[in-house]
Amino acid sequence: MPRRSRGQSPQKPSRDRGSRRDRSDSAPPAPAAGLVGRLAELIAAAFPGVLVTSDEPQEVLRDLARLCSGRKWNLVSWSADGNCEGGPTDPQSAVAALPQSGDGETPSLLAMVHPQRYFNSPELLAAVRTALAAGKTRRTHLILIQPTGDLPPELRRDFVTVAHPLPDRQELEAVARGVATEAGELPEPLTPVLDAAAGLTRSEAENAFALSLVRHGKLDPGPLWELKAKQLAAGGPLSLHRGGAGFDALGGMNALKGLCRTALTNGSPRAEAKGVLLLGPGGVGKSSFARALGREVDRPTLTLDVGGLMAGLVGATEENTRRALATVEAMAPCVLFVDEVERALAGTSGGAQDSGVSARLLGTLLSWLADRPAGVFVVCTANDASKLPPELTRSGRFDATFFLDLPGEEERRGIWETYRERYGVAAGESTPADGGWTGAEIESCCRLSALLGVSLAEAATHVVPVSVSAAEPLAKLRRWASGRCLDAEAGGVYRPRENALEDGGSPRRKTQRTRSDGGNFSLN
Prior knowledge:
single chain, alpha/beta, Rossmann fold, 20 helices, elongated, protease
């Protein structure tokens, strides 16, 4: 089965590594790309310890077997379930026997599947250190295969970690053709099926393909999207949203809609769309926009719960982040939605309360945002600009930063029409005073009217708009956004509207001071 193409590292000038040089091939062939190519390079360079993180150990073993067979290298495998081919069943004995299997010329590999549960044994740790020390000259290599990159402190500096990537579309197509072998079971084109399978492991994709054959008699994207949504929702930090309403059901935001739609459909060969940062009070439609964008450009929307990445064990947060971002990359092209990012990264000041985990998480996310692969469009939202890390808002992280203000009169009129129709409110019923209302508050009024069987005016008595309940934070947010953000509705640099004070940002008192020229000026 062909392996995922990840590109090759730049060639470096060769140098004599003495006894560490691979003498088994005077002119070794260029290594294949992906996991096989990376392992071939490390073994040829006489790295004695390699840790492969993978959820599919049998796939890694198959890759190793194919590599060793082609290079005439020796391979012994050990598994915690006692399935040991060519070696002892006891892990300490298997590691202790590794140095004796090398002759200093032909590489000898010991692949251990899920050995992490045995590393509480000091005897095993000592045997591993001894085997690694001998491996540099005897050409023996210890390959650990486990789901995470966790290692005891004694071994962390002795192993180089290699991630086993999720299958790309070429590999998924090979799996699909291996399952759908009868005439008419493979649809044409196959692209929608492969897009639906992207982000699944090889085993998960095979199961989903088989389920599709049972349900529909052919490969269909439906069961794959269903399985993928369940997998992501099973306690992980990612969730999947597909379908729903597009931009037509979302009032206002004309400039924001236009920029994102053009950036994602223009197809420029020289520039890739990165994403947008959306700032505004709660209820103005930032989350709805992210979901509608995916529907508008026919991409799945992945929601990342940054707080869900945090974990109590050392290294677990970094591992969760690596896995989540690997899934996002595998599902490209997609829209990645990060809601209320300022709350998730509130601890990035480097305080001791979390041993710097939040700061490291921010660094990982910033690095990924700078180097994220093509096809991932990121939509981050924030309600409080003062809590945003400065590194996140600098130029280049996103294509643009927009401020979503409270909807104007014309926008509110369209929002009323949308929710009147959704909740069955009579079109002729008068609309209550809605100055300073958000779209969420208009929806709440229509929903309460239908739920309680009362008029819109009476339902409005149960709604306290954010422009009243959070007037001071809203005014502060508008001042911060003025001149710093783009206007999501009108485009151009955001400036508060003339009626912004009427929408809830009214000053607490109107105070005048006498000027030196005898005139008056207002502090407000």
